[in-house]
Amino acid sequence: MAEQQVQPLHNEKHANIKIQNGINVEFMKTQHLVPVVAHEFARVANEFPMSFVKNNEAGTFQAVAMFGLEPGENLFVEGDKWTASFAPMASTRYPLGLVKHPEQDQFGIVIDEASPLVSETDGNALFENGEETDYLKRRKESLVSFIEFSQVTDAFTKFLADKELLIAQTLTVDIKGEKKDINGIYLIDEKKLNELSDADFLELRKRGYLAPIYSFLTSTHQVARLARLKANQA
């Protein structure tokens, strides 16, 4: 797989660059977990199971969509095609990204020049006469939204962790009659959720957290779908 060549986006250096919309399938085919933001939980839940993974060093949790049942496996990539009808924001913002300025509270835009979605011939122009195109402006807005959504999701996840609503879970799936355990993931503890005090439950509602919680809980039914896909591909 080609190495990434991430460079700051510049109106002169990248004057003739065009970007195709799409997903970097080459990169995605080895990703079994991809970060998701609370704002897309409802859509994610229609396609993929979600879980939380723990960063043991920092003690923090991150919400992820599960595309496979083991590391390096993505059951939604066939050949060079993405087969699901939806892809999370984290995977559609590529080949552009935002990088925080080390000294200032500002973000700069970067581009992976080695991406198969980047060329001088196909796709949407980023600059015209040195000015940003409407396409680039839209892409920038969605990158900024993703940062904002990520911050909201971090606060949501921290709230769940603080209220001890996240529980380490082993998921057992059935693949062609063989049982397989998936470890190292955290789910929302439905029993504890139902035992919350009225004040805590009201707090969840006020913060707008109930909808993503219920989407997350619904999504776990999609684990069976992953097992079916894995059985079919085997």
From TrEMBL:
InterPro entries reported in the protein's UniProt record: SapC
Protein name per its UniProtKB record: SapC family protein
Originating organism: Pseudoalteromonas marina
Organism placement in taxonomy: Bacteria, Pseudomonadati, Pseudomonadota, Gammaproteobacteria, Alteromonadales
